[in-house]
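Contributing new records

If you add data, match the layout below exactly. Sequence lines come first and carry their own label; structure lines follow with theirs. Keep one chain per record. Anything else will be rejected by the validation script.
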Amino acid sequence: MKPRLVATSALAVGLSALSLSTATAVERDPSQAKPLGQFLVEQARNYQLARNAELASRAPAISIPRIQIPDAKSLLERAGGTRVNPPTVPTSDEMMQRLVTMTYRMMLANANSCCPCSAAATCNDGLFCNGSELCVSGGCASGAAACNDGNPCTNDSCTESTDTCTFTPVPPPSAVARLDLGRAGNPSTVATLSWTSVAGASSYNIYRTASRNLSGLACFQTGVTGTSSNDDGVRPTVAFYFLVSSLACSESGLGDGSPTPRPPPPGCP
């Protein structure tokens, strides 16, 4: 506790000396600073009396009413003789707008930057496959890819070393794996065909022939979107043979089986 007492005493003595010197200054100061000096004397003395009456200044007490010390703005205006206008603090939206504008101007001012531009030519990266670069609102942007024919039925590829494009047709879907033929009711002249669905197929073609070796195969129905269909109810003098192909961008084969190999689908008009 002793170090604390020493510190308090030193502070009190210092304030006492301050009060005496201030009182002397107040007595010979007829200017407007006199009220401020009186206030300092009174406050220093009150501080000392509140902590140790023995250390209080022996100078006679000055009985004056407490005064309001002007704030820093008022003191500055009094000293300079001019009114001080406080700065206007912008809103957060205004600050954000100023920041965006400043950043944009800094980017445009830097001609060596990667992004700011005034024409598309300044954005050219020298690569073929990523297409022609654009200048949009002062910034570089990617244009359309060089090798894109817009055809969903081709696989597009690009070779940078030769600056060439390749458009490969999308392969056809798989062949129908199983086809069943049956008749509902007894007797019934209408045959129902059903088959397994094929992933990626958008529709199916049905072919029919009266030849066991599939010669004379002709289109019977085209663009069937389901996985079943009925025949026309015709009862031939010999059996009918049916085959189904799947379609997407192109048409599949007619699968494997007898006869081997099966002929290609003749196509439907």
